[in-house]
Amino acid sequence: MTARSDSRTLAWVLLAAAGAFALTMGTRQTMGLFLSPLNTSTGLGLASISLAFAFGQLWWGLTQPFAGAVADRIGTGRVLAIGVVLVVVGTCITPLMQSTAGLVFAIGVLAAGGAGMAGPSVLMAATARLVPPQRRGLASGIVNAGGSFGQFAMAPIAVGLTASVGWAGAMQWLGALMLLALPAAWVLRGNSNALAAQAAAASGMRALSAREAIAQALATPGYRYLAAGFLVCGFHVAFLATHLPGVIAACGLPPEVGGWALAVIGLFNIAGSLLMGWAVGRWRMKSLLALLYTTRGVAVLVFLLAPKTPAVVLVFSAVMGVTFLSTVPPTAGLVAKMFGMANMAMLFGLVMLAHQIGGFLGAYLGGTVFQATGSYDWVWYVDIALAAGAALASLPIRESHALAPARA
């Protein structure tokens, strides 16, 4: 009976975390489909609208360490519920905005900030807290696959809604769907710092404060290498999510191919996330990260040299999908292995901040370079070079516990 109850509890935790991530990631990753209609409706220009999307990438990252620190202390449930409501409001009012400042507020502050509060740093830490240690790698892969499934499911839904109710109505319906994530706040309630404090007291030590944990983490070379690689991941992911439909349109292909390309990325990332969750417990996580970054660089190079047909685009999207968010399980696993569960949401949130600084650059430079040159080629060249650098930066990471406990 106990084993059956534990399995049922584990299933609910994974369903709640993966479901919440599916809704937030699915809504965010389909916003690139609305870039062209927003430009046509507002007349602001591609660079101005890209700025709103880019600020959203940055703000999504900035909110995560703070959201993680709050969740570590007052509980995941409250933070998650507030985040869901902010995503709903921001997404629903975006079609009403007619200025760059308005789009930055709706897309970049409300929707992106809410998605950060309901994002991977909070969800991964809650999952790691609620599942047995031996299942954390696979659990993180399942939660990550939830985000991928959200992208796979939301992209064709967004295309269908746009065809039936227009782009503005489609955005508002996507915002309303986010309300389905609210029950996850109850399932994932609780915080990790209380458990860490009990364990520290039992061993005659005291739990590190947030400031002490951050200082020790930033002094650890492996943590800095990990953040540098994740910055490159953010550049790549944000550029694809925001500008892949534009890349496909620039190749003279129908808009539907852009929607299906995003869906294929989401579909194959489900397999990639589950595979990576399984692999985390069997191979060194830094080697897996190096492999992922190398695969991305090679795939982009082949795509640039290949003829741009729908089949080539979909194959490229499939390869990108396998690596798209597969970096999250080994990155979260390395943070947990180096620093333990106390303050994990905050420390992983800091790594996510680096990810989103890269995301800001990827989203903004994509629009700026295209507007200046009429092509995305130079962004692809930068992406290849960054992927090679991220692969090399992953190799010196030491997979060992790095935080020194403080005496009581």
Plain-language structure description:
There is one protein chain. With 408 residues, the protein is mostly helical. It has a single domain (10-190, 209-403), classed as MFS general substrate transporter like domains (Growth Hormone, Chain: A, Up-down Bundle), CATH 1.20.1250. 81% of the residues lie in helices and 1% in strands. The chain contains 17 helices and 2 strands. It has helices at residues 2-29, 35-42, 46-74, 76-93, 100-117, 120-130, 136-177, 183-187, 192-202, 210-218, 221-250, 255-280, 285-305, 310-324, 328-339, 344-373, 377-394; strands at 205-206, 406-407. A two-stranded antiparallel ribbon has the order 1-2. Helix 6 (120-130) packs across helix 7 (136-177) and helix 13 runs antiparallel to helix 17 (377-394). The longest helix has 42 residues, at 136-177. The protein starts with a helix and ends with a strand. 59% of the residues are buried.
Sum up the overall morphology in one term. globular
Strand tally: 2
Can you say what the CATH homologous superfamily is?
MFS general substrate transporter like domains
State the CATH architecture: Up-down Bundle
Pairing-aware structural class of the strands and helices?
Answer: mainly alpha
Helix content: over 70%
Please, how many helices? Answer: 17
Q: What is the H/E string?
A: HHHHHHHHHEHHHHHHHHE
- Distance between the ends: 40 Å
Low-confidence stretches: 199-205
